[in-house]
Amino acid sequence: MDNEKKQTENLESEAVEIENAETLKVVEPSLEEQLTAMKDQWLRSVAECENLRRRFEKEKEDALKYAATQFARDMIGITDFLEKALANVADRDSLSDSVKAFIEGVEMTQKEMHNAFNRQGIKKVDPENKTFDPNLHQAMIEVENSDVEPGKIVDVMQHGYTMYDRLLRPSMVSVSKK
User: I need a surface site. Which of 4, 102, 109, 158 has the fewest CB within 10 A?
Assistant: First the structure.
């Protein structure tokens, strides 16, 4: 009887082991699926963090690069006045030495302003004899001109400026038409 009892116990323990193995087989794929899902989620989180880091870095660069945009717009107006003052100077030979010195000072100021603009990435848009581009120019008037093909800039009323790749102020121009 002891032998039968041992066989019964062995059979019962084998049945329990078989049942446990079947349970593990069912649980194991579930754990693998969870592991795969968690790995995927982790990879997505890492990628998202990297994208955020890049975006913040770009925003930081742009903030530093374009921080002086409003100040630059204000300085452009001053440059316009310096250009107008120098454009209105008549025959310099007939002027007194003090007036010549004053004009020379205005020219040096204008030159230094342009040097400062260059250091800050500010460039003058030169639209003369070019095709009208609404991204860079503002058409103030259209002029009938048979000598020039339609859509070409005929006259510049006010120069535009860019700061790196951004437009600070469009050029105000007159455009030819048929």
Answer: 4
